[in-house]
């Protein structure tokens, strides 16, 4: 009788415990399904991020190639102008020509350099053209002879070559929205340039056809990247990896 009661009690306990154990199995199965779903969603997001990363890297590689091509083109133009002046000076020296004969060659070199500055990045363009115009006026009025004008012009050619290699922050007057104002500009060689106004507005120099113009940037991501460039250059960080708005296609992020 006692054994029967014990067996009945154990059976009753097992029957009562079985539903509880079954509920735990259901809960674990439900959690497993949820985790699998989350893993699949994360895998899909990871695939999307990988595709975006590949697209970004391809775009950056294309921009880098384009920047390098523009830099090489500008350096080639300056070197060609420099070579022309050098040849003119050499020809004049060999022929023993006098100043009257050298004068047209120097004036032609001044005009060629003026055309180059007029089409190049609008970095302190007025100052650069003013120096060139001063040489021309002094040459035409006889203040300096052609040989001295050629020497000063040669120095300006060297300055233009130096500009293609320098990155930094400078102050200059820009025209924005029909108004002229003083702003800080971050120059990347003679290929790209960005600006920051006194009231912390950011923008970039964009080329449309043969003309350059200053355009405001509204996109928060582009603003942040330009602000980071200014901050880095102010800290004397002139080399490294920077993501910047593309100014080469004439379109401004908005």
Shape annotation: elongated
Task: Please state how the strands of the largest beta sheet are arranged side by side.
Answer: 1-2-3-4-5
Q: Point out poorly predicted stretches.
A: 1-18, 249-254
User: What is the typical, i.e. mean, pLDDT?
Assistant: 79
Task: Report the structural category.
Answer: alpha+beta
Strand content: 5-15%
Instruction: Note the main sheet.
Output: 5 strands, antiparallel
Find the count of extended strands (DSSP E, 2+ residues).
5
Instruction: Give the helices and strands as they follow along the chain.
Output: HHHHEEEEEH
Radius of gyration: 35 Å
Question: Percent of residues in helical segments?
Answer: 55-70%
Question: How many helices does DSSP assign?
Answer: 5
Distance between the termini: 90 Å
Topology at a glance:
Layout: H1 2-95, H2 99-119, H3 125-140, H4 146-163, E1 167-176, E2 179-188, E3 192-196, E4 202-208, E5 211-216, H5 220-234
Antiparallel strand pairs: 1-2, 2-3, 3-4, 4-5
Explain briefly what this protein structure is.
This protein has 254 residues and is an alpha+beta fold. It contains five helices and five strands; from the N terminus they run ααααβββββα. The chain has helices spanning 2-95, 99-119, 125-140, 146-163, 220-234; strands at residues 167-176, 179-188, 192-196, 202-208, 211-216.
Textual characterization of the structure:
By secondary structure, the protein is an alpha+beta fold. Among the domains are: 72-163, no CATH class; 167-234, no CATH class. Helix content is 65%, strand content 15%. The chain has 5 helices and 5 strands, in the order ααααβββββα. It has a 5-stranded antiparallel beta sheet with strand order 1-2-3-4-5, covered by helices on one side. α1 (2-95) packs antiparallel against α4 (146-163), α2 (99-119) packs antiparallel against α3 and α2 (99-119) runs parallel beside α4. It is elongated. It starts with a helix and ends in a 20-residue tail after the last helix. Mean pLDDT is 79; it is low at 1-18 and 249-254.
């Amino acid at each position: 009788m006692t054994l029967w009661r014990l067996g009945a009690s154990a059976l009753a306990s097992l029957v009562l415990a079985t539903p509880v154990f079954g509920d735990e199995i259901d809960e674990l199965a439900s959690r497993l399904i949820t985790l699998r779903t989350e893993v699949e969603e994360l895998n899909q997001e990871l695939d999307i991020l990988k595709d975006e990363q590949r697209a970004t890297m391809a775009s950056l590689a294309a921009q880098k190639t384009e920047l390098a091509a523009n830099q090489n083109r500008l350096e080639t133009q300056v070197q060609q102008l420099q070579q022309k002046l050098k040849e003119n000076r050499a020809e004049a020296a060999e022929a023993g020509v006098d100043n009257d004969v050298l004068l047209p060659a120097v004036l032609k070199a001044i005009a060629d350099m003026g055309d180059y500055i007029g089409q190049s990045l609008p970095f302190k363009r007025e100052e650069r053209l003013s120096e060139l115009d001063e040489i021309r006026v002094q040459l035409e009025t006889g203040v300096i002879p052609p040989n001295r004008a050629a020497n000063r012009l040669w120095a300006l050619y060297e300055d233009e070559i130096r500009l293609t290699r320098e990155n930094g922050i400078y102050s200059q007057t820009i025209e924005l929205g029909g108004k002229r104002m003083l702003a800080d500009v971050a120059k990347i060689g003679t290929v790209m340039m960005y600006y920051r106004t006194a009231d912390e507005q950011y923008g970039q120099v964009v080329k449309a056809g043969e003309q350059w113009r200053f355009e405001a940037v509204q996109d928060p991501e582009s603003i942040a990247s330009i602000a980071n460039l200014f901050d880095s250059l102010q800290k004397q960080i002139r080399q490294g990896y920077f993501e910047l708005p593309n100014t080469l296609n004439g379109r401004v992020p908005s």
